[in-house]
Amino acid sequence: EYILGIETSCDETAAAIIKDGREIVSNVVASQIESHKRFGGVVPEIASRHHVEQVTLVLEETFAKAGLTMDDIDAVTVTEGPGLVGALLVGVNAAKALAFSHNKPLIGVHHIAGHIYANRLVKEFEFPLLALVVSGGHTELILMKEHGDFNIIGETRDDAAGEAYDKVARTLNLPYPGGPKIDQLAHEGNSVIDFPRAWLEEGSYDFSFSGLKSAVINTLHNAKQRGQVYRNEDIAASFQSSVVDVLVEKTYRAAKNYDIKQVIVAGGVAANKGLRSAMETKFDDEAIDLMFPPISLCTDNAAMIAAAGSIAFNQGHRAAWDLNASPGLDLERYAQRKN
Ligand code: ATP
Ligand code: MG
Ligand code: FE
C-alpha cells in the first residue's frame, strides 16, 4: 500500500509517499521560514502564494525520489485543517485534482492527527496511548484507545507552548521561529529566576502559558528600570524549566491515572532538548513506553499526514469531491466521522 500525503496548513509546503502506513518512501518539505522571518511571524498571504508556487514542484520531487507514479498510489491524503484557510486550500485543491484525475480515493486528515502519527513512522502504537501535542498552535493531552480515536483530556486555555516560545523569543529580540534558539540558549544558562508554573485546579490536565509569558516580560521590564541585567541564557533557561516542569508533570499524572501503555510527544516543541531529557528522566523507571519522533518529523511534514491518512484509509474513510479546507477543524469531531 502506497499513500500520498500533502501538507500546506501553515508555512511548509510538503508532500510524501509512505508504504504500508509506517515506512517513508520519500518525504519533501519546502520551508518558507526565510520569507516570513523579516515579519517576525507567518504572513498568511505570503504563505498561500508560496504554496501555489511550490506545490507542483514538491509533488514532482516526491514522485521522482520515490521512483513511483500516481498509478502506484492507493490513496491521496491531505491536511484538511486546522490551519490558514488560504494555505490549506492549495493543498486540498492539489489533492483533489490528483485524486480525481487518476480515479483514486481522497482522504482529508486533521493536522494534529498527523503530528501524533509521525510517531508511528518510528514504532507501532500500543493502546491506551497518551499523546502530548506541543506545537505552534496547540498544547493538548490526547488519550487514544485505538487507531483514529482521539479524546482531548487537557488543552491550553490561552497560548500554545510553541507560541509562548516564539513570543518570549521576540521579547529577547531573537529571530523567528524562536523555539529552537531559546532551547539552545537555555542549555548555556541557569534557571536563576523562579517563574510561575500554571498548575491550575487540582486534577486539571489543562495548560496556561500566557501568565508565564507576561512574567518574563515584566521581569525584563523591572530589571531594566533597576539597571539590572539578566543574561538571555538565564532568562531562556528559567522560562524553559517552567514550561517543561508543567508539561512533564501533567503528562506523568495523566499517564498514571489512565493506565497508559505508551506516551508519545508530538509537534514542533517535541524537538526541544530540555523537554526530551526531562521526559526521559521522569519516565525512566516506569513500565510506560516513551517515544519522540526524530527532529525532522516533529515540525510540519507530509509523511505524518500520510501516516494518519493510511489509518483513515484502512478504516474506510473517504472524502467527497467537495472536500473543503477547514481552518477550525475539531479533532474529536474529525475522529467521530466516517468520510
Ligand atoms: P500547529 O501544528 O499547532 O498547527 P505549527 O504547525 O505552526 O502549529 P509546528 O510546525 O508543529 O507548529 O511547530 C512549530 C513550533 O515549534 C514553533 O512555535 C517553534 O518555535 C517550535 N519549536 C521548534 N523547535 C523547537 C525547540 N527545539 N524548542 C522549542 N520550540 C520549538
Ligand atoms: Mg511551521
Ligand atoms: Fe504543525
TrEMBL record:
Enzyme class: transferase
UniProt signal peptide: none
Its EC number(s): 2.3.1.234
Limits of the Gcp-like domain: 23-306
GO-annotated molecular function: tRNA N(6)-L-threonylcarbamoyladenine synthase activity
Sequence positions that bind substrate: V133, V134, S135, G136, G137, D166, G179, D183, N272
Keywords: Acyltransferase, Cytoplasm, Iron, Metal-binding, Transferase, tRNA processing
Record: residues binding Fe cation: H111, H115, D300
InterPro entries: ATPase_NBD, Gcp-like_dom, KAE1/TsaD, Peptidase_M22_CS, TsaD
Localisation per UniProt entry: Cytoplasm
Keyword Metal-binding: yes
Catalyses which reaction(s): L-threonylcarbamoyladenylate + adenosine(37) in tRNA = N(6)-L-threonylcarbamoyladenosine(37) in tRNA + AMP + H(+)
Cofactor dependency: Fe(2+)
Cofactor annotation comment: Binds 1 Fe(2+) ion per subunit.
Job of this protein: Required for the formation of a threonylcarbamoyl group on adenosine at position 37 (t(6)A37) in tRNAs that read codons beginning with adenine. Is involved in the transfer of the threonylcarbamoyl moiety of threonylcarbamoyl-AMP (TC-AMP) to the N6 group of A37, together with TsaE and TsaB. TsaD likely plays a direct catalytic role in this reaction.
Family as reported in the entry's similarity comment: Belongs to the KAE1 / TsaD family.
PANTHER family: TRNA N6-ADENOSINE THREONYLCARBAMOYLTRANSFERASE (PTHR11735), TRNA N6-ADENOSINE THREONYLCARBAMOYLTRANSFERASE, MITOCHONDRIAL (PTHR11735:SF6)
Protein name: tRNA N6-adenosine threonylcarbamoyltransferase
Biological classification of the source: Bacteria, Bacillati, Bacillota, Bacilli, Bacillales
